[in-house]
Amino acid sequence: MIDFNFKYYKTYNVTNILNQLTDLDWNEFTFRQKTFDAHSETLTIPILWDNEKTQLKYWKNYNNFKNDLDSIGDILTTKIGEGHIETAILINLPKSKKINTHTDVGTYFADRNRIHIPIITNDMCIFEVNGEKVNMKEGEIWEINNSDKPHSVINDGEADRIHLLIDWKVSKKTKTFL
Fold first, then answer.
1. Gap between the Cα atoms of 167 and 104, Å rounded
2. Kind and range of the H or E element at 35?
């Protein structure tokens, strides 16, 4: 297995996702920011999320994003291998805020591909994994290798940064080692 910090796959048209953002209540779901210190300055909209990571839980906004998630799933099948989305959340990192350096550990992270797709971002928003820094652009599909690696994000821009985070679970029969 080849080790990496970031993999860029392609650009996706995020217009539909962007159009859905105005109707969302960013203060309704607080589990992530209250549970994980590193995410205390973020806001989260769950789309497909289970706090315990034991089952797929579809949240009230799921149908607004279903077509995009299906399309992104098709792209991930082509790039990574056949599988399914186990987590889909929107994460808002407000301007002048950061996600402190932390490491995700455990079997959940070891056998899933963590995908980030910026919906709104800026040139002063920097994602760092294991010392490598990337400024992701709107619509770009990035895989990050966050399992057992320190990572952080800083948003020094004048606008909030919103990413769609997806955890992709590859089917065992099609798992590829890149």
1. 13
2. helix 31-35
Distance, CA of 146 to CA of 129 (rounded, Å): 7
User: What's residue 50's pLDDT?
Assistant: 84
Q: Which two tokens stand for residue 79?
A: 């790039």
**Which pTM was predicted?**
0.93
DSSP state of 66: H
Q: Give the separation between CA 176 and CA 178, rounded to whole angstroms.
A: 6
What percent of the chain is modeled with pLDDT above 70? Answer: 96
Contact 142, 116 (CB under 8 A): yes
Residue 20: name the closest of 167, 162, 165, 166 by CA.
Answer: 162
CB 112 within 8 Å of CB 168: yes
Q: Who's near 155: CB < 8 A, 6+ residues apart?
A: 93, 94, 95, 96, 97, 98, 122, 124, 125, 161
